[in-house]
């Protein structure tokens, strides 16, 4: 009887120890998504963030596709050798997003702006690849707004639009909408929104009401 009691006590103690083990309560690591770099050896904090975020991983793969196309375009502006240098500076700047208050927001903005630059500078980059995740830049003329707005879209989940006019730019994220596609975001000036449903486009920036916009023909 003593032997059975001792065996029971040992089993009970073992089960308690197993339950209290750090491994028993450790959360499963987030899955790693496919990116343009090796997530297994990623050392930069921003790279680790990208590896574990589906939206950022999509943007990373698409940006790399655009970059490689730009390198094949001898008519690219800037030239391919300058594109390479710019890309290195861009990666360094992107990695600085780790020090921002909202690293993911900063990283999204970095990818959106770089995609806009690459697509703007090369016709080859703008090739209508059926698997592309970017469109633009498209130009919109808005009522009461003297400057055309250039828009580059990322069809990720959720979507992203980069808007640029004069010396100003803003990156907006897709938000739920009952009709059409709506993007929203803010900067230190206030809130922005961009809504599109077919040919109907509305844009609102801080200090203004909604402006009706018309897309200019793509050359």
Query: Residue-averaged pLDDT, rounded?
Result: 89
Main sheet: strand order: 1-2-3-4-5-6-7-8
Strand content: 15-25%
Tell me the distance between the termini.
92 Å
Helical fraction: 25-40%
Count of extended strands? 8
Q: Could you say how many structural domains there are in total?
A: 2
Q: Shape from CA axes? A: globular
Radius of gyration: 24 Å
Structural class computed from helices and strand pairing: alpha+beta
| Strand and helix order | HHHHHHEEEEEEEE
Biggest sheet layout: 8 strands, antiparallel, barrel
Q: Report low-confidence residues grouped into runs of 5 or more.
A: 1-21
| Number of separate helices | 6
Please describe the structure with a list of short key phrases separated by commas or semicolons:
Lipocalin, globular, disordered N terminus, alpha+beta, single chain, 6 helices, 25% strand, 2 domains, 8 strands, 219 residues
How does this model look, in words?
- There is one protein chain.
- By secondary structure, the chain is of the alpha+beta class.
- It folds into two domains: 83 residues, no CATH class; 82 residues, Lipocalin.
- Helices cover 38% and strands 25% of the residues.
- It has six helices and eight strands, in the order ααααααββββββββ.
- Strands 1-2-3-4-5-6-7-8 form an eight-stranded antiparallel beta barrel.
- Helix 4 runs parallel beside helix 6 and helix 5 runs antiparallel to helix 6.
- The radius of gyration is 24 Å and the shape is globular.
- The chain starts with a helix and ends with a strand.
- 27% of the residues are buried.
């Amino acid at each position: 009887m003593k032997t059975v009691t001792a065996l029971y006590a040992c089993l009970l103690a073992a089960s308690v120890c197993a339950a209290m083990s750090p491994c028993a309560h450790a959360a499963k690591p987030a899955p790693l998504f496919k990116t343009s770099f090796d997530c297994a050896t990623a050392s930069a904090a921003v790279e680790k963030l990208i590896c574990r975020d589906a939206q950022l991983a999509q943007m990373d793969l698409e940006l790399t596709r655009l970059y490689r196309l730009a390198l094949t375009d001898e008519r690219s502006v800037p030239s391919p050798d300058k594109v390479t240098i710019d890309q290195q500076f861009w990666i360094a700047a992107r990695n600085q997003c780790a020090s921002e208050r909202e690293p993911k927001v900063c990283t999204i903005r970095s990818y959106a702006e770089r995609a806009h630059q690459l697509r703007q500078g090369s016709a080859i980059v703008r090739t209508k690849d059926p698997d592309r995740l970017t469109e633009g830049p498209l130009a919109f003329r808005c009522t009461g707004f003297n400057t055309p707005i250039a828009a580059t879209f990322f069809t990720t989940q959720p979507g992203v639009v980069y808007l640029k006019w004069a010396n100003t730019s803003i990156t907006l994220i897709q938000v739920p909408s009952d009709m059409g596609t709506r993007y929203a975001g803010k900067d230190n000036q206030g809130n922005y929104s961009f809504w599109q449903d077919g040919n109907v486009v509305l844009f609102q920036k801080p200090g203004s009401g909604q402006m009706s916009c018309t897309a200019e023909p793509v050359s």
